[in-house]
Amino acid sequence: MSSLADFQNEIYLNGLGDALPALPTDLTRLEELAGAKLSAQAHGYVAGSAGSEATARANRAAFDRWRIVPRMLRDVADRDLSVEVLGTAMPSPVLLAPVGVQSILHPDGELATARAAAAAGVTQIVSTAASYEIEKVAEAAGDGPRWYQLYWPKDRELAASFLARAKAAGYSALVVTLDTFTLAWRPRDLDQAYLPFLRGIGVANYYTDPVFQRAVGGPVTEENRDAALLHWVANFGNPSLTWDDLAWLRERWDGPIALKGIQHPDDARKAVDAGMDGVIVSNHGGRQVDGAIASLDALPAVADAVKGRAAVLFDSGIRTGSDVVKALALGADAVLIGRAYAYGLALGGEAGVRHVLRCLQADLELNMALSGLTRPSEIDLDVLVRDR
Ligand SMILES: Cc1cc2nc3c(=O)[nH]c(=O)nc-3n(C[C@H](O)[C@H](O)[C@H](O)COP(=O)(O)O)c2cc1C
Ligand SMILES: CCCCC(=O)C(=O)O
Q: Which residues form the FMN hydroxy acid dehydrogenase domain (predicted)?
């Protein structure tokens, strides 16, 4: 039987090999190492969060308030972490969150991430704000499973064009991010006057789009670059959207749709009422509302509200296998990792992302087995206690 945990023996026998710099197997240490390698601006952008970063800290602290209770003698020899979420088969309940502007982390950006994800059979969610065109990312992914994340622009025709392109490039599910129609107050970026988009990073999918080009009078060149940037700024997000607008989206995407950024059970119910297939419980890794509830603390009520009627995904703060166990116990069907793989990309490109995926999945499988669990479906509240 080949298991995700085989990676452990592989490391004991051979180490990590020459392909990788000495990357830590404790993924909570990646940030510190990536910080030493990246420019101050790139590091600030990725590691930073909104305001005083209270929400980012709360996201991590919430995991510590739950403890796993290991169970013994339950025959955990036969283990299978695979799940199916929104029609996509996955080797484990772990996906790669949409992270835009990945070329600030590594020159190959989303292309390297696509290759690593495809090699592991892990689903990559590709952002509208990717540094490479989604068609090129799809080509790098080959047969790899991929979902498309929409930043819903003001211009409806542009939104429709994005959806058509994603469908044509083989993205099987749509993730619509609701919590970032405008960037929050982000002091690390403000203090360095740094925003990747204003330096031409993360706009490739706009500048190459036929609808966008028509609006700025043709392909983006030196001549119309400023006009293109202004058009991007004016169009990136739409603060006027309401729940009624989802009908427009539902008509234009015939695959599964999940709404990302859900924190309240009423919003989750509205998502189901609007014909959505999933919700992603997320506070954007603490990058939007400073002082917001820890995403893990928002999860149980959302899961209670819609479990069985919609897929429940979770992100914000996942760094270890035990974090995944806790999120699944509190109601998630699967989780997304963001910064964890972003730092892997920064430190080792494609091999770095692969390393992060192998570590996290092995850690998850071992944690489950040692707790008496062989399948994600067996993980429920019985495995946790509140730490007092
Ligand atoms: C550098 C960076 C860029 C991001 N870009 C996007 C994006 O383009 N679209 C999106 O929906 N979320 C984006 N996110 C949020 C992630 O999808 C995810 O919600 C968050 O990273 C989860 O928290 P974690 O980093 O603690 O895992 C970004 C996060 C980071 C750190
Ligand atoms: C304009 C926002 C796109 C990237 C993003 O979502 C983030 O930095 O959190």
A: 19-388
208 contact partners, CB below 8 Å, separation of at least 6? 133
Q: What is the pTM of this model?
A: 0.99
Inside any domain, residue 355: yes
Strands 88-90 and 94-96: unpaired
Question: Do 345 and 102 contact (CB within 8 A), yes or no?
Answer: yes
- Find the 149 Cα to ligand 2 centroid distance in Å: 12
Per-residue pLDDT tens digits for 280-325? 999 999 999 999 999 999 999 999 999 999 999 999 999 999 999 9
| Chain-centroid distance, C-alpha 239 | 22
Task: Out of 110, 180, 186, give the residue to mutate to test ligand 2, the one with the largest number of ligand atoms within 8 Å of its CB.
Answer: 180
User: Ligand 2: which residue has its CA nearest to atom 1?
Assistant: 183
Q: Find, among 384, 366, 376, the residue nearest to 9 by Cα.
A: 366
Residue 183: the pLDDT is 98
Residues in the chain: 388
Atom nearest to 236 CA in ligand 2? 1
Residue 241: CATH number of its domain: 3.20.20.70
Q: For residues 257 and 171, is the Cβ–Cβ distance under 8 A? A: no
Residue 166 resides in a domain: yes
Catalytic residue among 43, 106, 231, 284: 284
Summarize pLDDT for 120-161 with one digit per residue, the tens: 999 999 999 999 999 999 999 999 999 999 999 999 999 999
**ipTM, two decimals:** 0.99
Query: Which domain covers residue 263, as residue numbers?
Result: 6-386
Total tally of structural domains belonging to the chain: 1
Model confidence pLDDT, tens digit, residues 13-58: 989 876 676 899 999 999 999 999 999 999 999 999 999 999 999 9
For residue 33, being part of any structural domain is answered with yes
In a domain, 1, yes or no: no
The answer to whether the CB of 211 falls within 8 A of the CB of 158 is yes
